[in-house]
Amino acid sequence: MGTGSIANDMVQILKQLPDTEVIAVGSRSAEGAKRFGNRWGIPRQYGSYEEATSDKDVDVCYIATPSLRHPQDCLLAIENGKSVLCEKSMAPNHVVATEVLDAAKGSNLLFVHGVWSRFFPAMRKVREIIESGEIGTIRSARASFCQNDGAGSCSALLETGIYCAQFLQWALGDPGAAGSEDGTGPVVRGACQTLHESGNDEHVTAIIEFPGSKIGSFECSLAHCSSRSATIYGSGGVIDIPFPFWCPTQVKVTKMTGLGSQQWSVPEIHEFPLPSDIVALPTADGDVPGFNFVNSQGLAYEAEEVNRCFRSGLIESSSFSTQQCIEILRLISDIGQFAAN
Prior knowledge:
Layout: H1 5-14, E1 24-26, H2 30-40, E2 44-46, H3 49-54, E3 60-63, H4 70-79, E4 83-87, H5 94-106, E5 111-114, H6 121-132, E6 138-146, H7 156-172, E7 187-195, E8 201-210, E9 214-221, E10 230-234, E11 237-241, E12 250-257, E13 263-264, E14 268-271, H8 299-311, H9 322-340
Parallel strand pairs: 1-2, 3-4, 4-5, 6-9
Antiparallel strand pairs: 6-10, 7-8, 8-9, 10-11, 11-12, 12-13, 12-14
């Protein structure tokens, strides 16, 4: 559902996965559905989302509509008995997210929030390094995702800040913990923002305290650039994830010891190449437009996880559980409220 830039990237991924068929496209207009469907060889072309979600042969709906529509489009798919992979952000806050997730759970349907970072092999390596104690006790982490593109059109917190927040949760939280639901989750200790004339936040910084006295900080913006990298700090060294940290292919570990932690080891670099069997596909007219976003080949990790969960009869992915999803959107809401006061 949806025919924008990310849908153009995802359809190329889905058409290359085993035992996966893209059989239908839904758009807000018949013309849009026909244009997209003809371009990518999709046989069933629906000029409304209602028609698309009503197709009895569709198992999973990929929601790539404008983000403000995500909750209603997710609920429409769920009401029609479809499992859902929804692009971020799935909702503007944790209250709406809970409504959608409860609807999916009540219908025994798979729902995956498409924060694709969680499914990259490099992210699993980060957790492995943390849990091994290789850089000692983890005390803090930071992330920066600022781009000079889109200011005013939407919330920077929901567009790029969500990647920062989920990274801090992954680095400083306990993936197996219940999180905010039991009152032991992360707490926003500071935040400030700059608003665009449209009323949307365009630049936000935040400080978050995680259980165990761990501190996370991040900056997000749609009005200026940053390195778009992330770092985790331990008592015995650091883990660096360079650009693009939200869809990473490299993890660098540097150990630090001695007086003033001034003795640095030779960095250990872990590389995770993108799937070599995923390539940019030609359209029906023979053009090869390529991918719109950096490392879009990595969308395959997310899509493969959805396939695995669906075929296993699961209703959520352990890589980004329902509770983790709600916790992230609660953090986003809390940051926005703190910054506004």
